[in-house]
Amino acid sequence: MKCETCEECETCDNQPGYRASMQITAVVNQKGGVGKTTTTINLGGALAELGRRVLLIDLDPQGHLTEALQLSEAPDKRNLAGILTGAWTGSVEEIIVPYSTPGSGRLDVIVTTLEMFTVGRELDRLRAREERLDRVLAPLKDLYDHCLIDCPPALDILTDNALTAADGVLIPVQAEDSTLRALRLLLAQIDALESELRRTPLTLHGMVVSMLDRGAGGQARSNIGRSVINALEGLPLPIVATVPRGVPISEAWRYGRTVTDYAPDSEHATEFRTLAAVLDKASA
Ligand SMILES: Nc1ncnc2c1ncn2[C@@H]1O[C@H](COP(=O)(O)OP(=O)(O)O)[C@@H](O)[C@H]1O
Ligand SMILES: [Mg+2]
């Protein structure tokens, strides 16, 4: 994209929205099925629509992000697992797959591979095992504005790598009772990692309430849903977006598209655009 200010370079620090360093956000919650992959894909789409250069990382060995974007798994060795363990020593740029170029932005992906299922065991044997992803991503700092990491549903070494590499976290949650205990465990893990490893604390961007079954007035339909939302609102962690359960999200997933592209006028697309603006501003 051409710089809008000096019109001479591709990207420079005169350009509105240009940041000298990629902001890395871990989309994290050790609970499965809470909307991490959906948030990563659609927030990525909304950021790219804003003109940002966005890299998505499928860190979950189950590979739902790779599958949802209808991308092929990476080949042997020359992949995320290989580069994390040192089995492959090429450049990280070689394992990036272009997905789309909406407007002036860009959406690229580091896809999963079957070896991600065993990478945790291999990382356990290595030095600085929590810092491997941070080192892998370092050469990309000037090539992207945002990197979103789709974390696995576990507080494991892969999630620790994401939290160590990240500048901030987004926590997708559902309006159900088990959410509060999961949040306590996650925040304790972040605290423990911070005191052990990190130089600067992670920015807790907040929670994304996913798959909300809405009733009249846009509130949660069930009593339990409403009481959990009340409890979440009482936490010192903001709710930065609320995404209702809806067909546009499932259909976009089925057709390998982001919801901002597949159903641009849906309330779901609007919600992800609002979230993109929050994240973009927070990291500017
Ligand atoms: N707002 C939504 N409306 C409808 N289906 C959704 C919505 N958000 C997520 N889903 C679906 O719920 C399932 C779990 O979401 P996912 O993002 O994969 O969670 P996680 O990554 O935390 O396991 C997926 O099949 C996804 O398509
Ligand atoms: Mg997932």
From TrEMBL:
InterPro entries per the UniProt record, alphabetical? AAA_dom, DNA_Partitioning_ATPase, P-loop_NTPase
Q: Which residues form the AAA domain?
A: 22-198
Stored PANTHER family: P-LOOP CONTAINING NUCLEOSIDE TRIPHOSPHATE HYDROLASE, PARA FAMILY PROTEIN CT_582
From the Swiss-Prot or TrEMBL record, give the protein name: ParA family protein
* Organism of this sequence: Streptosporangium longisporum
The organism's lineage?
A: Bacteria, Bacillati, Actinomycetota, Actinomycetes, Streptosporangiales
